Amino acid sequence: MGKQITTLSLGTDSLSRLLPRYAIPAIIAMTSTSLFNIVDSIFIGRGVGALAISGMALTMPIMNVAAAFGSMVGVGAAAITSIRLGQGNLRAAEKTLGNVVLLNVMLGVVIGALGLLFLDPILYFFGASEQTISYAREFLHVILAGNCITHLYLGLNELMRASGYPQKSMYAMLVSVAVNCVLNPLFIFKFGWGIQGSAFSTLIAQCAALSISLHHFSRRDSFLRFKRGTFRFNSRIVGAIISIGLAPFLMNICASIVVIFVNKALTTYGGDLDIGAFGIINRMAMLFIMIVLGLNQGMQPIVGYNYGARKYDRVVNAYFITVTCAVVITTIGYLISRFIPEQVAHLFVGGNDVDAAALTESVVYGMKYMMCMFWAVGFQIVTGNFFQYIGKPRRAILISMTRQMLFLVPLLIILPPEMGVTGVWVAQPVADTLSVVLAAVLIFFQIRRLRRNPDAEQSI
């Protein structure tokens, strides 16, 4: 009954109390995930070398593809669970939990096996050179072998938060960061395992976090828990999960395609160290994006529950509060990139050799252009996720697809031949601007509909 009251409060408590209650643990958790990746890069850059960072950057498309499937299941299931709880249908939420486990195991095994089977051809296609492929290969051999663990960890953590346990979800992710921070320097510096040591550290840290989620959903006092009969594929549940989760799936797939174009352009008009610079800038940007995604995760159960309960005023107000906070966060990221880019580069780059100096110079130059529209990215991210959370995946897909594929990829084809490396960096802010305009138009009409014609809205 206590957990029922906690869930029902999503429709009754003030938004100024609810959003921090759900968002702060999610922000801490998502920030810890970004720090997880930053710690990897810092230890690799200082313990292995500048070219190793370039090798890590080459793994991003493959990691994004794996994350695409994990996000599809986790985000889609979290949205479905929140809406079902808002409708008072606990049994349907429990069936969703069982299907999440089955989907994550199946997809994790298949994607990991395919990645290992075709790893070298994929890496060369993504822009690897003879100097960088060995680093990427060593890292991904370990990560892909444990891909099933990664999928389960991410999917169950999403459901734990969506079902009313945001703090426990946060603790699980903090445990993963703590384990990684301890094991990374031990494996790289003490044991001398190089970049593969970082991969082992990452996988062990995810195992630790997954064990918390499994224990939680196995407890009898958990509001949503594993039960007999729920571990069966249900075509309607799977279809709903995939439909809503298709937006983050396509976003991650598009991100992989974009990185391929970026890497190839940087290889053609720059070099291996420019690829490493892109990896560092991306890591820094992701720190602030993860904070925004944490805000989104805090917004998700509130919006999903109230949309399911047809309390549309609360849905709109939660969106506006979240957008305001998100823009403040991405503006801070822009200011850092504008005023202290050298300090950001020096976090990752150690030593005084030629490669370290060239990498630092490339980071500072690329950040000046790539991050100049970053202050507006918070609005675009929140708006795209908002459409997911109210069960309108087509609009969420449109926002994510246009930014990545219709705007950014053509710009990456057109600008570099005319502007060289600068064209690669400039393409990002131009695409961001166009995407923000599109998101503003879509959200304007959606909010007007919620306010003027609420009876036309149908919960999924």
Describe this structure in words.
The chain is globular. Helices cover 84% and strands 0% of the residues. Residues 1-6 have low confidence and may be disordered. By secondary structure, it is mainly α. It has 18 helices and no strands. Helix 2 (15-47) packs antiparallel against helix 10, helix 5 (90-117) runs antiparallel to helix 8 and helix 17 packs antiparallel against helix 18 (421-452).
The major sheet is characterized as:
none
The rounded distance between the terminal residues' Cα atoms is 26 Å
Which class best fits the helix and strand makeup? mainly alpha
Helix content range: over 70%
Proportion of residues in extended strands: under 5%
Overall shape: it is globular
Supply Rg: 21 Å
* Unreliable runs: 1-6
What oligomeric arrangement do these chains adopt?
Answer: single chain
What is the string of SSEs from the N terminus onward?
HHHHHHHHHHHHHHHHHH
Query: What is the count of β-strands?
Result: 0
Q: What integer is the average pLDDT?
A: 84
Please give the count of helices: 18
Q: Summary?
A:
By secondary structure, the chain is mostly helical.
Keywords:
460 residues, mainly alpha, 18 helices, 0% strand, globular, disordered N terminus
Secondary structure: elements and pairs:
Blueprint: H1 2-8, H2 15-47, H3 50-58, H4 60-86, H5 90-117, H6 119-125, H7 133-145, H8 147-162, H9 166-190, H10 194-218, H11 235-269, H12 272-308, H13 312-339, H14 341-348, H15 354-370, H16 377-389, H17 393-419, H18 421-452
